[in-house]
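Q: what sequence does this backbone want?
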């Protein structure tokens, strides 16, 4: 069953779709997020977040269900940018990348992928990488039916570009975490060098703590001095945040940049929207 978790729009009617407006859409393992960006102001004027149980329905049925209540999904947009948010992605150092063997990279790490297509993003950070990832054929078919021109990118690529733009990939030691409702993306920097970007599944706070503590231990990072930045669907009053604070002594909550948004999100913790609003920047 698809649930509309958020539907926030500009109160002055700017959420109405007009010629030239841009749709930013993220397809995750258990969510689909939609942001509309106005062509004249380049401001986010509407945000929708739909959540569902992973693999509970086909991609086509999920999009049909979302289209029944979304103000954006079924409109015709001139520009559509789609982010793929899953763990089947492999950052390859640029000197080691070859398009001819992109499929082999993924098969070696994740095993064969049936009914998928292979894509890659150039991520021009301090040490450039090519993010190689799969896209389900069913998703590609749905997007082709809905829109005439779609630009694809993986969410990890956007995370790395954002951290680079903020000079955080050159930070001495950093653990950056984006939380979603059933998984999180973690980025680790040690001595100013990117060590890891990975998606982890979790059911409870203990899962999160185990993965993070295991990662920092393996990389020889001190939880007392490590800078930890968190954002996304994480409630500061929930057990998970309290537990993180017990183990990691230097936690910063990364709030969304609302200067590029014309919608009012003051009723919610601003860090809820950081992973999604960053997609539209």
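A:
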């Amino acid at each position: 069953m698809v649930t509309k978790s958020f539907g926030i729009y500009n109160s002055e009617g700017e959420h109405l779709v007009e010629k030239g407006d841009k749709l930013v859409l993220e397809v995750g393992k258990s969510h689909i997020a939609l942001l509309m960006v106005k062509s004249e102001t380049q401001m986010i004027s509407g945000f929708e977040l739909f959540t569902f149980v992973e693999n509970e329905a086909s991609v086509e049925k999920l999009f049909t269900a979302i289209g029944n209540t979304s103000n954006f999904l079924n409109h015709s947009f001139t520009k559509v940018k789609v982010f793929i948010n899953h763990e089947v992605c492999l950052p390859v150092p640029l000197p080691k990348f070859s398009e001819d063997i992109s499929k082999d990279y993924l098969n070696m790490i994740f095993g064969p992928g049936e009914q998928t297509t292979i894509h890659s993003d150039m991520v021009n950070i301090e040490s450039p990488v090519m993010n190689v990832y799969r896209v389900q054929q069913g998703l590609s078919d749905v997007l082709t039916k809905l829109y005439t021109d779609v630009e694809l990118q993986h969410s990890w690529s956007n995370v790395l570009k954002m951290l680079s733009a903020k000079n955080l990939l050159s930070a001495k030691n950093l653990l950056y975490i984006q939380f979603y409702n059933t998984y999180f993306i973690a980025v680790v920097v040690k001595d100013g060098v990117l060590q890891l970007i990975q998606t982890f599944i979790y059911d409870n706070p203990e899962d999160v703590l185990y993965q993070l503590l295991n990662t920092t231990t393996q990389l020889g990072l001190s939880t007392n001095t490590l800078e930890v930045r968190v954002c996304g669907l994480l409630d500061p009053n929930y057990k998970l945040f309290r537990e993180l604070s017990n183990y990691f002594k230097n936690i910063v909550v990364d709030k969304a940049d609302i200067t590029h948004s014309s919608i009012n999100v003051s009723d919610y913790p601003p860090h809820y929207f950081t992973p999604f609003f960053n997609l539209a920047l």
